[in-house]
Amino acid sequence: MAHDPKQLQQVLRAAAPPDLDLTFRPMFGGILAYVDGKPFASLFDGGLGLKLAGADHAEFSALPGAKPLQYEPNSPPSKSYVVAPEAMLADPIALRRWIVRGAEGLKNIVKKPRKAKARPRAS
Q1: Confidence (pLDDT) at 27
Q2: Which of 6, 30, 60, 102 has the fewest CB atoms within 10 Å distance of its CB?
Q3: Does position 105 have pLDDT exceeding 80, yes or no?
């Protein structure tokens, strides 16, 4: 089923707890959702993909209708994003539970510092 990312943004915003620092940015024809500045969900024509790790990822992936995020049929499946089951998009209470778990999981992710680019030496 094809989805409208803007509609999915409304679904995600309505299901999210009101105190969640949720922001959105257009990205590659879809929308990327961020929690506290960290990528959290991908909203695209294929559905709403939540970023989950560890046991949460495994449990969410096992739900009927959940599937690994794939932007194109021939592209490799995501190792961290799982597309929410269609039925969950109409169930804000169930979706909120997973939004909260995904947001909690982001707190454990430590950003790796970027390596500084080497500057050419002046002669």
Answers
A1: 87
A2: 6
A3: yes
117's CB contacts (< 8 A; 6+ apart) are: none
**pTM listed for this prediction:** 0.83
Q: Which tokens is 97 given?
A: 């539970």
CATH code: domain 5-106 is 3.30.1460.30
What six digits make up the tokens of 119? 């500057």
Are 65 and 86 within 8 A, CB to CB? yes
HEC string of 39-103 equals: EEEEEECCEEEEECCHHHHHHHHCCCCCEECCCCCCCCCCCCEEECCHHHHCCHHHHHHHHHHHH
Per domain, the residue ranges of the chain are: 5-106
**Could you tell me which residues come within 8 angstroms of residue 65 by beta carbon, excluding any fewer than 6 positions away?**
85, 86, 87, 88
| Token pair 């109409």 in the structure block, residue | 90
Is residue 36 left, alpha or beta, with left meaning phi > 0 and alpha meaning psi from -120 to 50? Answer: left
Element (H, E) at 6: helix 5-15
